[in-house]
Amino acid sequence: MCDGELGGCGGEPLPRERPRDRCDSRCVKCKDGSPVVSIRAGDAFCKSCFKDYFIHKFRAMLGKNRCIYPGEKVLLAFSGGLASSSMLRQVQEGLNREAAKKLRFRPGIIYIDEGAVCGRSLDERAKTCRQVGAILRATGFPCHLVFLEEVFDLPTSVLNSLTQSPLDQAPSYKEAVAVFTRWQQQQREKRADAATSLEDQLAECSMQGFPWQERLAVLNEAGSSLASHAEELARLFGGVKSLTAKEELLQTFRTHLMLHVARRNGYTKVMVGDSCTRVSVRLLTNLSLGRGAFLAMDTGFLDSRYGDVLILRPMREYPAKEIAFYNYLFGVPTVFMPGLDTKASDRASIHLLIESFLCKLQSEFPSTLSTVYRTGEKLSTVPPEVPTDVSTAPARCLLCLCPLDTHLEDGSSLQATLLSEKLSQRLPAEDGCCGGGTQGGCCKAPPAGIETSQLVPLLCYGCRLTVKELSCVESLPPYIHEEAKRQQCRAAMKQEIQEFLLEDDT
Prior knowledge:
Elements: E1 37-40, E2 43-45, H1 47-65, E3 73-78, H2 82-94, E4 106-113, H3 122-139, E5 143-147, H4 173-190, H5 198-204, H6 212-220, H7 225-238, H8 243-264, E6 269-271, H9 276-288, H10 295-299, E7 302-303, E8 310-312, H11 320-329, H12 350-364, H13 368-377, H14 413-425, H15 437-440, H16 452-455, H17 461-467, H18 478-505
Helix pairs in contact: 2-11, 3-6, 8-17, 9-12, 9-13
């Protein structure tokens, strides 16, 4: 028989004994220090052990991939946020004279000012640039200040995936290490009293400067090109219908600017501060936006779609919680800058909705983010070969440079979507409009230059959804129109050659 006094049938259940909080004990690593942070349930670290753990994870991520060769120039994308600031500190720690195994690449920093699309005044942008400049000057690394308005001055070569010839390919990692070691030994023998370590060389070289005052002064001039570009950029983003499309377009322009600066200054790698939380959100967002075919490129550690410049994500194993703890405990300076989604509701865009969903689920189930992240790790980084024909669009997307995923197959969802769009365009329109819409243009406002219907075949499915949110395709930067015209002419030329060859055969 059940005893009610013991919490059985007929009695109140006894309260469960509260498990011992391991945060009140000792550090799980050294077993001696008092814990100051608990990154997971039962994993409590003291301050010293947490720093060693954090640094080791960063170094292990770079070491196991072995994609950065000694002596290479690596561009660090700094935005002022928690993740990019922590990434910058890890590179500084790796180049420190007291580091056990020093990093052997040559870092540089790029900062992109996005105040034009966020509605910020020049005084607010100057204040932010002043704060960012103070942080970057303290590193001693070469810095590059870029305004988002400069996207209108980019060349068409940014939209090309450059591949290296077999003769120009770098040697193996072991050969590069041996060459770098021999070079160091020769320098030591020549000048024993000279600084030969990489951090000393960086300290000796003069910084290229962070001329934010001069650049902002140019923006303030009424007749300057940057000022006119700022108006064009504001007009472009003002004509985008949804916040989701604005964020995707902003990410595209940001990547193009980083790629241009890297190629112009000889950087072969670009490090971005995408954390585990950001990667998990991006993975589910891409699925919602029709970019499932490119998940490995958009969320993996290595993104090689651009050929000569590789995008690296060394912070992708750090949850946002760990990064916030590290920055707080060790005084990593950050700069807050309002973005497009500042003060927006969690349903304003797909990005915010998925981020809110994952964070709320993470609070109830602590393994949510790690599960999503580990699932994305299993994706293949080698995209499937897409069959292309000389008479169709090129094999890569015009904007994101991913392989086109729009080849039609019988019974596919894309075929059904395109068929539905064609049928909807044939419906009679109201107010005397021809019904062309955004696909074929309207009779009241005939478009000039590249039309949406001409641009869409050059894009992947995800970028098509973004471009369709534009009220006027004419407002896109000139380098996109020029590259679109070049690819169309090239496709037409291939079609003519093929038809000519077929006539000769007959």
